[in-house]
Design brief:
6-stranded parallel beta sheet; single chain; about 260 residues; 5-stranded parallel beta sheet; alpha/beta
């Protein structure tokens, strides 16, 4: 792997760079080393718990300095979708980070709408699902921000958004706008200034690999999250990484 070829590095957050409240071994060192080598480092996530500004603050507090513009979230992508389709209201299943991103686009949170935005919501319940169903019964649609199945902290794992998504799909018109959807790719290209042939996508899920491959980047999987050797063997070609490594520390040794 010739490091001189690459200038832009895109890192997933959950289970790649951190386990929410603690960084994964090698994360700070890798980012510091890339920046010292005059590389551009950016972050992507389809976890909507925080806004871009809040993620930048969280990264900085954890020893990885970041600006709001360095980060792309599926909450921002959701806001872009609504704005581009001239929609001014949405029923939101999600937490403050998602609402903050929509608010920046002047999207009103309302039950009187034909659009449901479904993000990671740790207070998801039957009432919220019923309201989403009512909107879809009237011809509305649900925009799904993530297919992530597991949310991990230093104390263990808990369900992410993925296990709830099938309910939305069963009830009506639901589409993915998080990784690795075509719309996420479209926003990604507009949001970041990069050249695909000198860019690297690093993540822990097949969705990260598919996103990077579809964008024309070199893709690197780390085994700190969802990807296993068994999943890689069974993956479609578009989901397979160019390189598979056990951890970020080993990645640093390979590229620096």
């Amino acid at each position: 792997m010739d490091i001189d070829k690459y200038r832009y590095f895109f890192l997933d957050l959950d289970k790649t760079l951190w386990n929410w409240d603690s960084t994964i071994i090698g994360a700070e060192d890798l980012v510091d080393s890339l920046r010292e080598a005059d590389k551009q480092v950016y972050f992507t996530t389809d976890n909507t718990l925080l806004s871009r500004e809040e993620y930048a603050r969280k990264l900085t507090d954890m020893g990885i300095p970041a600006e709001k513009e360095d980060i792309l979230t599926s909450g921002y992508v959701a806001g872009e979708y609504l704005a581009q389709n001239d929609r001014t209201k949405a029923y939101v299943i999600g937490e403050s980070g998602l609402i903050e991103e929509l608010d920046e686009k002047e999207i009103e949170v309302s039950e009187n709408t034909d659009t449901v935005i479904a993000g990671f919501d740790r207070n998801f319940n039957y009432r919220k699902l019923r309201k989403a169903h009512q909107i879809m019964e009237k011809g509305g649609e649900t925009l799904i921000c993530s297919t992530e199945n597991v949310f991990r902290t230093s104390s263990g794992t808990q369900p992410h958004q993925g296990p709830f998504n099938q309910a939305f799909r069963d009830l009506g018109n639901a589409r993915l706008i998080g990784k690795p959807s075509e719309f996420y790719q479209e926003v990604f290209r507009d949001y970041f200034d990069f050249y695909a042939d000198t860019s690297m996508m690093i993540g822990d899920r097949l969705e990260d690999m598919k996103l990077g491959n579809q964008l024309g980047m070199t893709t690197v999987s780390v085994m700190s999250g969802d990807i296993t050797r068994e999943k890689l063997k069974a993956a479609a070609d578009i989901e397979k990484p160019d390189y598979g490594l056990s951890n970020l520390a080993r990645l640093k040794r390979r590229i620096l």
